[in-house]
Amino acid sequence: MKQKSENKNSRKRVSKWVYRILMLIAACVFAYSAFQLGSIYYANYKEKQETEELKGSIKTVKKNGQEELRSVDFEKLREINPDVIAWIMIPDTDISYAVVQGTDNDYYLSHTVAKESNYAGAIFLDANASADFSDMNSFIYGHSTKHGTMFTNLEMFRDQAFADAHRYVYLFTPDKQYRCPIYSMYSTSYDSDSYLLGNTNSATQGAYLEMVKGLSLFDYGVEASAQDRLITLSTCSYEDGVANERRYLLHAILEEWSGVDER
């Protein structure tokens, strides 16, 4: 009987230790998850705070019910980061950001305009592109985030009613200002022919324009010639509900604008 009692007590002690270990593991998992969640919320807060501060460098006006970009203080922006080369805005979306250009296409995937480490990154021009947007096709990249910042709102152009009502991308540089008619928008694979970064001459531009117009979800009714330059906005597509190799591309004609409403 004594042996049986000792065995029973021993099993109880082992059970208590197992329970304590399991509780400790659960507590560690909870603490780690809480830390990760807190880090995400803090990163989102810092990103929003920085974006609002940077927007103090721009002026917009309301025209025909839509916001238009009218001026950008590039001196102020370049005091924060000399890599700032432009400001991009699409009315009725959260897309209103400084555009930077780094020495590679990796740094600004995980750093903000203020060069703070942040998973949302920044909006940036391809590192190999001309900073003055003189290439035939200038690629501008941005993340698609779960909290809806950067280029996430490009997916709004999947809706025809929204696309019909929003026909321009505004792009201002230190020297020029552009109101760019949207030419094409669609999803494609990351390695498709749409990513022809070497497309820098008018001999190939005509065929490229014809190709991307044929891929577009909707016909924007915009005419283009082989001499027209493009800006191409690129972000990840989650239309299948998961991260994959799909991308949203929005092409717009780079068209200089005086700031006077000519519509």
UniProtKB/TrEMBL annotation:
Transmembrane feature ranges: 21-43
EC numbers for this chain: 3.4.22.71
GO molecular function: hydrolase activity
Alphabetically ordered keywords of this record: Hydrolase, Membrane, Transmembrane, Transmembrane helix
A Pfam family per the record: Sortase
Leading EC class: hydrolase
Keyword Cell wall biogenesis/degradation among record annotations: no
Superkingdom of this protein's organism: Bacteria
Name this polypeptide is given: Class B sortase
Organism whose genome encodes this protein: Massilicoli timonensis
Gene that encodes it: srtB
